[in-house]
Q: What sequence folds into this?
């Protein structure tokens, strides 16, 4: 794939000189989402790659570019046993020529967890069972110390550079709004773990002067994901953009203020709730691949509630869970 002409390059021109590994199929489709009200659309980032889609793909383009620059050979990453990040990195990191090692902490079992483990193997990743958080951390350090030219990709992999992926994705959405494929959303609902997706979208909307509210639906523990972590990621992302040439005087700029909705997480990361279980089933009927309770079930549960609370708003679900490369296919 040749270097795509991303809309973010126009706003922050120095980004053009970064090493960027084109993986994503863009733009991802937008379409009405039936069953949530008249004004609800969905952005299909599940379709961002035929190999394995979902919201990590856009971020790998930047992070794997950086890894190439640094001469990295092995990517060491950490996640739950059903981590979509570990699956996505084994798929895309492996194809880009890296060796990928995932150290996995225990999470509640589900058919999706089993599928994820199967995919990690199929995509050629090396998977190490970490057990609890402490032993997982220890084994991760051990891998970092013993592997050749290793780079750590932390859980969630958010960070200023990675977050640019979703600043750009929001600009991609703006082009779709301009082409009248959907109305400009008043509110965007997205699953929020490490926060990079939520923050990137919110920063992108702020750069355009959109009044759109970006709501991150918290799917993990409060210590790891809260308004402070979102705020810190937001300012770090905004500083990087300024460093890369973004001049706020060119646009309306009030700074981004992503919101977080804490109501749907239940007992914590990977733990089901009645609403998430119900919505995981609806996910399959909407998108044609099995849903799960960690990300998609909770995001849809939140969307159902939030859409009912704001019936007159144009709303967008940003779907983050891959429907491609899954074992059902
Ligand atoms: C990583 C991930 C998220 C959360 O994204 P963050 O940027 O870490 O907040 C949501 N859904 C899926 C399927 C993911 O893999």
A:
């Amino acid at each position: 794939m040749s270097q795509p002409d991303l809309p973010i390059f126009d706003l922050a021109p120095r980004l053009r000189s970064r090493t960027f590994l084109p993986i994503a199929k863009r733009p991802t489709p937008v379409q009405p989402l039936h069953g949530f009200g008249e004004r609800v659309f969905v952005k299909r980032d599940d379709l961002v790659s035929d190999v394995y889609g979902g919201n990590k793909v856009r971020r790998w383009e930047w992070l794997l570019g950086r890894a190439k620059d640094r001469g990295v050979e092995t990517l060491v990453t950490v996640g739950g046993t059903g981590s979509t990040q570990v699956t996505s990195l084994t798929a895309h990191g492996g194809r880009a020529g890296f060796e990928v090692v995932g150290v996995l902490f225990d999470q509640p079992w589900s058919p999706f967890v089993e599928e994820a483990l199967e995919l990690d193997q199929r995509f050629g990743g090396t998977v190490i069972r970490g057990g609890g958080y402490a032993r997982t951390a220890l084994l991760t350090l051990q891998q970092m110390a013993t592997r050749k030219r290793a780079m750590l990709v932390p859980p969630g992999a958010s960070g200023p550079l990675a977050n640019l992926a979703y600043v750009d994705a929001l600009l991609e959405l703006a082009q779709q709004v301009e082409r009248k494929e959907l109305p400009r959303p008043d509110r965007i609902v997205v699953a929020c773990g490490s926060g990079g997706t939520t923050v990137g979208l919110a920063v992108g909307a702020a750069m355009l002067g959109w009044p759109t509210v970006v709501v991150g639906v918290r799917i993990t523990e409060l210590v790891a994901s809260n308004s402070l972590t979102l705020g810190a990621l937001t300012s770090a992302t905004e500083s990087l953009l300024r460093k890369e040439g973004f001049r706020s005087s060119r646009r309306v700029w009030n700074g981004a203020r992503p919101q977080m909705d804490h109501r749907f997480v239940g007992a914590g990361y990977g733990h089901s709730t009645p609403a998430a279980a119900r919505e995981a089933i609806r996910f399959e009927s909407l998108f044609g691949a099995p849903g799960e309770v960690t990300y998609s079930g909770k995001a849809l549960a939140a969307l159902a509630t939030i859409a009912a609370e704001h019936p007159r708003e144009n709303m967008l679900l940003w779907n983050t869970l891959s429907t491609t490369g899954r074992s059902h296919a």
